[in-house]
Amino acid sequence: MARKLNLLAFDLGASNGRAIIGQYDGTKIELLEVHKFPNGAENINGHLYWNILDLYAQIKTGLMKANQAVDRIDSLGIDTWGVDYGLLDENDNLMGNPYHYRDKRTDDLLDEIFTKVSADEIYANTGIQFMQINTLIQLYAERKYRPWMLENAKSLLFIPDLLNFFLTGKKYNEYTIASTSQMCNPQTFAWAEPLFAKLNLPLDIMQDIIFPGEVIGTITENIKQQTGVNYDIPVIAVGSHDTASAVAATPLTDSENSIYISSGTWSLLGMELPEPVINELSQKENFTNEGGVNKTVRFLKNISGLWLIQECRRIWNRDGMDLSWSDISQAAEKAPLKAIIDPDDPRFLSPENMPEAIAAYCRETNQDVPETYGEMARTVYESLAVSYKMTIERLEQMIGRKIETIHMVGGGIQAEILCQFTANITGRKVITGPIEATAMGNILAQLMAKGEIKNLEEGRELIRNSVELKTYLPQ
Length: 475
Description:
Mean pLDDT: 97
Helix content: 25-40%
CATH superfamily of the largest domain: ATPase, nucleotide binding domain
Strand content: 15-25%
Oligomer: single chain
Number of domains: 2
CATH class of the largest domain: Alpha Beta
Radius of gyration: 22 Å
Structural class: alpha/beta
Shape: globular
Strand order of the largest sheet: 17-18-16-15-19-20-21
Largest sheet: 7 strands, mixed
Low-confidence stretches: none
Number of helices: 18
């Protein structure tokens, strides 16, 4: 290869976003972070929103910095968290700030929805687990509380689709992000039309579905002028749900007997499968069939992740403790285990004060209450590992075979205490890496679009050549 390819990945998570250049020389990928910025919910009169215009501005800043860092950007791709969306009117104007999935307007709506369409029918049509954050429930809330929005909307774009639209003027719904909505059929790769009809939701606002590795368009002249870029940059549909990109870059070797845990604000634990698993047991266990790169299925369970400890640290530091992640890990290692909590208890979804919520749970379940921040952190980390163990055992029941290896990827693997607890408590080998799985998976889809790699197998071989993996054995 005459020159390195420079592939720009925008990876937007629930707490921060980054612009990362993947430099590909034909044998490996090296990452260069050019921009990082905070992200989070804006609370306006008790409702939670995303500051979408700031995210757009940060993407332009990232593009500008990337253009200054290398001779040429060969393509770019955007991935974000799932389920959230923006609505456009008939003139393609954004109709308001997108709601944050933790907004309380979807509280207590599931039972009402089930009077109009059964849980069985929703699951049979979508294979998606029931969570109040799903787009289907959000749109039902929109119809119930703000009907004029859906009456005037002409297009629904999920967050990465919306940002791609701002850059290119092209409107699509990318498949992996669409699959998180609980409105898409994983067998037909099309919208689940019966659900729209029964819940009186407008099907015509949904867009044509595009798949990872396809070209959306090129950046507009307007974007070029704002960023100082004087050449065309193709915008690629990547696995625009961040977990889809993370799984694409997980170096699975024995996918028959391996699972992945994409570890971040959420823990996404599952297997990569060629076909969806939609049956009574998978529905009962609330497992989900989300879309993957190369039309694979991410058969997984959403488990609360580092959100619990992130929120604890936010409260501790707000109260003047000034704790680093290293301080917390070291204290957790030395602390005795006081209690085990259920990380998915609804009280932990969006509490005002996470340490108080954990303490209240321990009191209610007649356990010792963690008193120091080290004891609290140990409770969180061990509880996550116990949750992983229980989920793996349920997964084994569903697929009828033993899981031998756990691949952990994402920012959460920097909490080495969590990786070791996971090996200890599950009794399985844990292989960690890459930390930057999401950005790397984003870059792999761009390489597929350019014909540099053919499929996930080649992509994962490239990942193994590019990063150092670490193994944890049960102790």
